[in-house]
């Protein structure tokens, strides 16, 4: 669920958006396992995860 929701930010802001990519690098990739995944996700997305992105990915919600 976190991966689908994180990717939805790229879909919203543009898959090649430099600022989004840098935010993902700074808030997720560069932190590795040093912090709880939920905290890293919230820092990247600015909110709690939402189920909608995963449902759309699987074609359950359109």
TrEMBL record:
Its EC number is 3.4.24.70. GO terms for molecular function: carboxypeptidase activity; metal ion binding; metalloendopeptidase activity. It comes from the Bacteria. InterPro entries: Pept_M3A_M3B, Pept_M3A_M3B_dom. Its cofactor is Zn(2+). It is an enzyme of class 3 (hydrolase). Residues 1-59 form the Peptidase M3A/M3B catalytic domain. Belongs to the peptidase M3 family. PANTHER family: DIPEPTIDYL CARBOXYPEPTIDASE (PTHR43660). This is Oligopeptidase A. It comes from Klebsiella pneumoniae subsp. ozaenae.
């Amino acid at each position: 669920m976190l991966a689908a929701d994180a990717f939805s930010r790229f879909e919203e802001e543009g898959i090649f958006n430099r600022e989004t990519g840098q935010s993902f690098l700074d808030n997720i990739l560069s932190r590795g396992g040093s912090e709880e995944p939920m905290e890293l996700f919230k820092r990247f997305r600015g909110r709690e995860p939402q189920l909608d992105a995963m449902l759309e990915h699987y074609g359950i919600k359109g």
